[in-house]
Structure formats: C-alpha cells, structure tokens
Specification:
- With about 150 residues, this protein is mainly α.
- The protein has a single domain, classed as dinb family like domain (Four Helix Bundle (Hemerythrin (Met), subunit A)), CATH 1.20.120.450.
- The protein is about 55% helix and about 5% strand.
- It has a two-stranded antiparallel sheet.
- Strand 1 and strand 2 form a beta hairpin.
- The radius of gyration is 18 Å and the shape is globular.
C-alpha cells in the first residue's frame, strides 16, 4: 500500500534534495562520464522530460485519455527517453539543474491538487492518478480475469 500524499511528497522532497546536491557536486567532466549506458547529463535530461510529460499525462488521464507517451511503454520508453536527450541537450550542469527545478516546481503543486479518489488505480502502476472513466473500460470475467470492454 502507498503512503499518504503528505508522506509521499515529503519523501519526494528528500529524494529530490539529495539528488540535486549530488548533481551540483559534479564537475563538467563527471557530468559527461558514462555510468553504464547513460551519463549523469542524460539522467538530468531524463528527469526534466519525465517531470514535464508526467504533468501533461496527468491532465490527459483526468480527461479520460491515455497519456500520449504510453505508446512507448512496451519499448521500455526508449523513444520517449531518447527524445529527452535531444530536446534537453545542454551540457551545462546549472542550466539542466535549473530546468529540473522549474519542472519540479510545476509538477509538485499539481500533485497536491489530485483528490485521493483519483490517486489509485488497479489498471497499472503508471496509472495511479487515473480518472474513474478509465477504470470503467476494464472488468473481470466470471473467472476473475481482466477484460477490456
């Protein structure tokens, strides 16, 4: 079970602060040094992009529309993530951190506005904020399996 909204958003603030402190300590060279398949710069671009599209996706869900980025879910969001790397392509750490701050400052207040009745959904983990109309498109058959109607 999920914690309540206040605890979740407090956890987000703690994680965000720790992440930003770590990123602020990176030299320009370290920012571009690969960590497996990604550089820290790529990770910063990833956060900027996901903050932005999460906000847009929440609005779509509240309208009963599947978020535009779900098309790439079966591809582990590779196309979506690649678009972030090209769209948020700065190599300046401070510019990237500022963009993360701006997107977080837009997303978190929105998260505070979502009623408890819209924060959970059985459909998928990505659909925690789903509108009731989306839940109505699925039901269980007589054997308990989920079917889409």
């Amino acid at each position: 079970m999920f914690k309540n909204r206040k605890e979740q958003l407090a956890d987000l603030e703690l994680a965000y602060d720790a992440f930003m402190q770590t990123a602020k300590g990176l030299s320009p060279e370290a920012l571009m040094k690969p960590l497996g398949d990604w550089t820290p710069r790529d990770i910063l671009a990833h956060f900027i992009g996901w903050n932005r599209i999460t906000l847009a996706g929440c609005a779509e869900i509240c309208e009963g529309i599947e978020p535009f980025y779900f098309y790439d879910g079966t591809n582990d969001y590779r196309k979506v993530n690649a678009s972030f790397l090209s769209r948020f392509n700065s190599t300046d750490r401070d510019i990237l951190l500022n963009q993360i701050q701006i997107t977080k400052d837009a997303l978190v207040p929105y998260l505070w506005t979502i009623p408890a009745s819209r924060r959970t959904c059985h459909r998928s983990a990505l659909c925690r904020l789903a509108h009731p109309r989306l839940r109505q498109t699925q039901r269980r058959d007589r054997f308990g399996y989920m079917i889409t109607s």
